Amino acid sequence: MSSAQERLTDALYGLGWSAVKKLPEPAAVRLGRTVADLAWKRRGKGVRRLESNYARVVPDASPERLAELSRAGMRSYLRYWMESFRLPAWSADRIRTGFDPKDVHHLTDGIASDRGVILALPHMANWDLAGAWVTTKLETPFTTVAERLKPETLYDRFVTYREGLGMEVLPHSGGTAFGTLARRLRDGGLVCLVAERDLSASGVEVKFFGEPTRMPAGPALLAQQTGALLLPVTLWYDDSPVMKGRVHPPVEVPESGDRAEKTSVITQALADAFATGIADHPEDWHMLQRLWLADLDPTKGPS
């Protein structure tokens, strides 16, 4: 990305946070849906990749059904952005009532135990809103990790935004995040990680909807090293203004095997929990990038 493109990207995000948050909620909803439909009609590479990913999730879907899913997926994705731009202006009460998770006792019991809790999520619905709900409704701060974006000013915007919602944000790069996360967990703290895509050499290979991909090792390694509770979480929207979600049962650390073997088993269990939630609500999974290893050949389609 050129420096001019980086400046434009930063300016557009800045405009979103400054302008969209001032809109009345119905106007923001309409704007998000309009932008989503325009993007969907253009059928750029992100929309085509989204549709290709949905074809893995719903393998018996007709082309017409996949088109419906990708349109709904873009509307869900833009709902995420409209909400995120407006979240800094939401009242505490609006945040507390804006998310209604099932089986939250897994999380509250884990917090009360002081053993530390790791929440692992895929890119579904609005994970920022879920985080704001945790810091506001449950009055529990947590630590997360953010990828360093370009330009640096855009990364700073995201850090400031998430810190304003009550999160401690660590940079993904630099090599110090894992140690800090482990210390937070040993102190009985809460860590939240978006964890279904890691195509680096350090990712753990798993089967996801029947095909291999790689997911981050971090949640599994942290659970082994600290004894923290590891909880998968999936999120979705319905026709109401309230986001829904589920805290899945804990993923247990196997009693036998070396560290690599345990990491593989734990990460596969996370993948299976994510797949359950995504299969139930595919349109709320915002994966507009390549995910499966078979798609990494650049001759096979959009990125």
What does this protein structure show overall?
This protein is of the alpha/beta class. It has helices at 3-19, 25-42, 45-57, 63-86, 92-97, 105-113, 127-136, 152-164, 177-186, 218-226, 259-280, and strands at residues 99-102, 117-121, 142-146, 167-171, 190-194, 204-208, 211-215, 229-236, 243-247. It has a five-stranded mixed β-sheet, sandwiched between helices. Strand 6 (204-208) and strand 7 form a beta hairpin. Helix 1 crosses helix 4 (63-86), helix 3 packs across helix 4 (63-86) and helix 10 crosses helix 11. The longest helix has 24 residues, at 63-86. The chain is globular. The protein starts with a helix and ends in a 23-residue tail after the last helix. 38% of the residues are buried. The model has no long low-confidence stretch (mean pLDDT 90).
